[in-house]
Amino acid sequence: MYRTKALIAAVLLLGMVIGAAVPADTSSASPLKPPDFGAVRRVALVIDDFGNDMLGTEQMMELPVPFAAAVMPFLPTTKRDAEWAHRKGHTVLVHVPMEPNAGKPEWLGPGAITTKLTDEEVRQRITAAIEDVPYATGINNHMGSKVTADERIMRIILTVCKEKGLFVLDSRTTDKSVIGKLARELGVPTASNNLFLDDVYTRSHIAKQGVKLQKLANTREATIVIGHVGVPGKHTADVLGSAIPAIRQSGAVFVPIAQMMQ
């Protein structure tokens, strides 16, 4: 358990570096399709790393579109942030810390799922994480490039999600993820991230990703984008504040993440 907010913030920063190592918008999980201008183009926004009173939390909560607040379990403001998002009408996800291929497991925070756990330990940890985040209707992975490629671990996690009626968003931190395959096999609603807004923390990079988001919203029938509170939080909120009106003017609509599940 981390003893200070600063230490956990540093952990989440490292987690974002590793978690965003694979650029999701170039993955083969959700190929670019020619636009169908007779269809409504949809955008679903996900904001990760709530739960520790991180920078940008208040600004994100005031965004004028529906979004999914991905809340990490077992942290100081886990319940406050989940309840806050729910009151504002936003979707709540459990942002489950999962072991990456690179980095130390202790960077993940409390209750992390690692590949060294037994089947029963995995079941216990995912169940505890779900129970710690009020109003959650789905989960997504924090980091997790190693775990999301592990069929044994993910089968257990997805089975628990099915039992509890939760959907699963694959943050796509690795192109070796087995989430989609297992979710289809088990009958668990799922979808995959298409773009990280703030995998690099500079304002200039986030602004470029905001432009990329607008292009995706104009060329895809469905786009899922992930941003973060924390180190880049205020920059990301500002960029979204500018991008949202342009995306709406293009004819795309922001929808809850549940509408993207298949």
Describe the structure.
This protein is of the alpha/beta class and 262 residues long. Helix content is 38%, strand content 18%. It has eight helices and nine strands. Strands 1, 2, 3, 4, 5, 6, 7, 8 and 9 form a nine-stranded parallel sheet that branches. α4 packs across α5, α5 packs across α6 and α7 packs parallel to α8. The protein is globular and about 50 Å long. The protein starts with a helix and ends in an 8-residue tail after the last strand. The relative contact order is 0.21. The N terminus is likely disordered.
Radius of gyration: 17 Å
Report the mean per-residue pLDDT as an integer: 89
The main pleated sheet reads as:
9 strands, parallel
* Low-confidence residue ranges: 1-11, 20-38
SS class: alpha/beta
Number of strands: 9
Approximately what portion of the residues adopt beta-strand conformation?
15-25%
- Kindly, what is the distance between the CA atoms of the first and last residues, rounded to a whole number of angstroms? 36 Å
Shape: globular
The total of helices stands at 8
Quick rundown:
By secondary structure, this protein is an alpha/beta fold.
List the helices and strands and how they pair.
Layout: H1 5-19, E1 42-50, H2 57-61, E2 67-71, H3 78-87, E3 91-98, H4 119-132, E4 136-143, H5 151-164, E5 167-170, H6 179-186, E6 190-192, E7 195-196, H7 203-219, E8 222-228, H8 233-249, E9 253-254
Helix pairs in contact: 4-5, 5-6, 7-8
